[in-house]
User: Fold these one by one.
Assistant:
Number 1:
Amino acid sequence: MATEADVRTALEEVMDPEILLSVIDLGLIKTVRMGENGKPTEVDMLLTTPFCPYAPMMVQNVTEAVEKVTGGPAKVEILPDAWDQSMMPDPSLLGHW
């Protein structure tokens, strides 16, 4: 059975196509609630900009990564909160951008 850590590890492969960092490196994944008894695993995430043109693709990529590791359905919710560099585990990663 997959754990939250397994899901977060899988999400390290989901990249923001403009910044070229993972949704984990950017601190975009806020909450992972593991699904039980057939319920979907739920992921709350932010976008780097409110009207990100890549939002549908990123949601799809996150959904697919979660479903691959859990073997069950996933639901991704985009939070309305604003993102900034301070949410990153290591803001120095943006130095190349």
Note: Strands lie at 29-33, 41-45, 74-78.
Number 2:
Amino acid sequence: MTLRTYSAVIQKVGEWYVASCPEVGTVSQGHSVEKALANLKEATELHLEEFPNAVGERPILTTFEAAIGA
């Protein structure tokens, strides 16, 4: 078994936390950050069992400013 570290982006949407892995493209959700992350891990592992070459390169994470309103 090989272990590899992946990124997780987690956002609160209503009552749910939605977690996504940008390197693989998997998405899951849960009622807590911990549950969303656990569900994302499971979804990612299942996806990689079926598609072992689905791993993309590390995403570039940065910030930018955007004007809001008039």
Note: The first helix runs from residue 33 to 50.
Number 3:
Amino acid sequence: MAESHVISALTSKRSELAGIIQRHKQEITRLSEEVKTLDAAIKLFEPEYPIHDIKNKRYQRKNSFFSHGEANKLVLGIIRRGQPITATEIIEELATMKDISSDSGSFQKFKDAVKSTIRRQKKQGLIVETNMENEVSAWSVA
């Protein structure tokens, strides 16, 4: 027989996720109604307008840690100082600059934002990855 604390934790998690799904469904319904209202307004002004040709914009969540372009500049500034530097060292230095504690609940999101910036800079050819001791990657300017 399964442990009661395991069942309790699983049912609690299921309940939480089902609530999130319900909230998002309600938000989808609300947004769909707004789109229909906008479609009607467009048709009011231009009855023959091809609404189905309107392309969806990609939704991008706003980064709450850096202003526009700031992460790019800060990461490049750190890497340009000289010796190859690991992603962990870059993250630690930026966390200190931004006064973000590694104990905070948002630290993982902060790390993800910095790692995303590093990946984007690598893809753009601004920085290059080199392997150091113990197969740890370090970054330097291209």
Note: The first strand starts at residue 85 and ends at 86.
